[in-house]
């Protein structure tokens, strides 16, 4: 996961945006048994959304920690972006859905498939995914994976 996140952060730096990017993986985080391509797509979609919906000067934090009581790994991606409008939160997981107002303001390309793919792939791996968001303050996506 560390290599994946560093690769994604490096890609973002190539886009020459002024942003604070941080990665914290606790030392006790075990390897996750997952399809590498699918897990890479999950993380790529979530981090790419954080990047696309966070204006210059913002921040993105990726963290991973181990929850020994449940033997699961909790991954979070927190941004200081525009947030998700309350009226759109139920639709965020649906195919071909995106909040056009923010996408147009920030000139974000896309089809509205990313988060529906994230949810489907996480659930295929017996995991859970959810988010917390405050309009104008940012969003945190959480992914709970089995080790």
What does this structure look like?
The protein has 147 residues and is α+β, with helices and mostly antiparallel strands. It has one domain (2-146): 2-Layer Sandwich (Heat Shock Protein 90). It contains four helices and five strands, in the order H-E-H-E-E-H-H-E-E. It has a five-stranded mixed sheet, covered by helices on one side. Helix 2 links the parallel strand 1 (20-25) and strand 2 (59-67). Helix 1 (2-14) runs parallel beside helix 2 (36-52) and helix 2 runs antiparallel to helix 4. It is globular and about 35 Å long. It starts with a helix and ends with a strand.
Distance between the termini: 12 Å
- Kindly report the spatial arrangement of strands forming the biggest sheet: 1-2-3-5-4
Structural class determined from secondary elements = alpha+beta
Report the CATH C-level class: Alpha Beta
As residue ranges, the low-confidence spans are: none
